[in-house]
């Protein structure tokens, strides 16, 4: 199923579809984790999220998108996942690469698409990431790909929930699909 999904670097023209995917993935992944009214509020401004995507892409920020294989998919279903790597932002990070984001639409969970997006973003390189502490599904995914909790914890202000840092200190082979 996921082999037919094209993964490519996002372009400015993908900003609206990418932003729609981003907001929808937050709703799907954080339901039951983030207070419902806050989640709705934080995922309702498509114009602002599209502007942020467009500006980042225009500035050369790398975002990999998974494109729905159905050519007739409406714009809200055109991008079904994305990942975003970059330099580690934490001064105390033991690695130089960070996975800023990786999301897959709920209907694609369990298909291996997340592993493909992880692979294109960071490969087998050592890396770090931040994940909502209560997001057990995501933490299990990262553990399967060699990440471990390093004890760092912060209060994430956008969704008002705790986040923890996970590190993959050594390059590893991708987990089997």
What does this structure look like?
- There is one protein chain.
- The chain starts with 5 loop residues before the first strand and ends in a 9-residue tail after the last strand.
- The radius of gyration is 16 Å and the shape is globular.
- The chain contains six helices and seven strands, in the order βαααβαββαβαββ.
- The chain has helices at 15-30, 36-42, 46-58, 75-78, 113-122, 136-144, and strands at residues 6-9, 64-67, 79-87, 97-104, 127-132, 148-156, 161-168.
- It has a seven-stranded mixed sheet, with helices on both faces.
- By secondary structure, it is of the alpha+beta class.
- The chain has a single domain (2-168), classed as Aminopeptidase (3-Layer(aba) Sandwich), CATH 3.40.630.
- β6 (148-156) and β7 form a beta hairpin.
- Pfam families: Acetyltransf_7.
The H-and-E topology, N to C, reads as: EHHHEHEEHEHEE
What shape does the CA trace take?
globular
CA distance, first residue to last residue: 12 Å
Stretches where pLDDT falls below 50 for ≥5 residues?
Answer: none
Structurally, the number of domains stands at 1
The total count of helices amounts to 6
Number of beta-strand segments: 7
Give the proportion of residues in helices. Answer: 25-40%
CATH architecture: 3-Layer(aba) Sandwich
CATH class: Alpha Beta
Average pLDDT works out at 93
What is the fold-level CATH name, i.e. the topology?
A: Aminopeptidase
CATH superfamily: Gcn5-related N-acetyltransferase (GNAT)
Strand residue percentage: 25-35%
Radius of gyration: 16 Å
Strand count, sense and barrel status of the largest sheet are: 7 strands, mixed
Structure classification? alpha+beta
GO molecular function: acyltransferase activity, transferring groups other than amino-acyl groups
Keywords: Acyltransferase, Transferase
Domain N-acetyltransferase: 5-171
Protein name: L-amino acid N-acyltransferase YncA
